[in-house]
Write a sequence for this structure.
């Protein structure tokens, strides 16, 4: 992971972010925009994937990052399912569906690859040691 200093540097985050952008554009136009519940559910799931990737990264712990990637994959899976609903209900063009469905699949694949890497990392992040506490001053006034 050398050179990856921010969550935005990871392919999985980039793919999830692009999917979120496309979902927001798609749900902001008719006919999809007429179904408020569908729009809210789809946007929430699409927004949560890059958020979870970022949150996991900033835990600075491979095991926790792995767990947050599982949650991000679940959100990406939910977006995939919502896209299937949209196609069945004729809320999305076939071309839009293919592009976004492919993005979701690629993001899930990238998350799987990153998780495989994280499983090979040391299991615990070891924070730097703090300096020892100073003993209390015996001459301190009370």
């Amino acid at each position: 992971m050398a050179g990856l200093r921010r969550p935005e540097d990871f392919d999985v985050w980039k793919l999830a972010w692009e999917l979120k952008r496309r979902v927001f554009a798609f749900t902001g136009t008719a006919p999809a925009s007429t179904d408020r519940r569908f729009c809210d559910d789809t946007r929430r799931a699409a927004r949560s994937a890059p958020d979870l990737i970022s949150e996991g990264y900033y835990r600075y712990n491979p095991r926790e990052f792995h767990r947050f990637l599982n949650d991000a994959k679940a959100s990406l899976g939910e977006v995939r399912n919502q896209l299937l609903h949209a196609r069945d209900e004729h809320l999305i063009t076939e071309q839009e569906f293919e592009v976004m469905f492919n993005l979701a699949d690629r993001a899930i694949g990238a998350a799987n690859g990153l998780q495989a890497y994280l499983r090979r990392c040391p299991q615990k992040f070891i924070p730097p040691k703090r300096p020892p506490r100073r003993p209390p001053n015996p001459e301190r006034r009370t």
Notes: Residues 9-119 form a domain with the de novo design (two linked rop proteins) fold (CATH 1.20.1440.60). The radius of gyration is 21 Å.
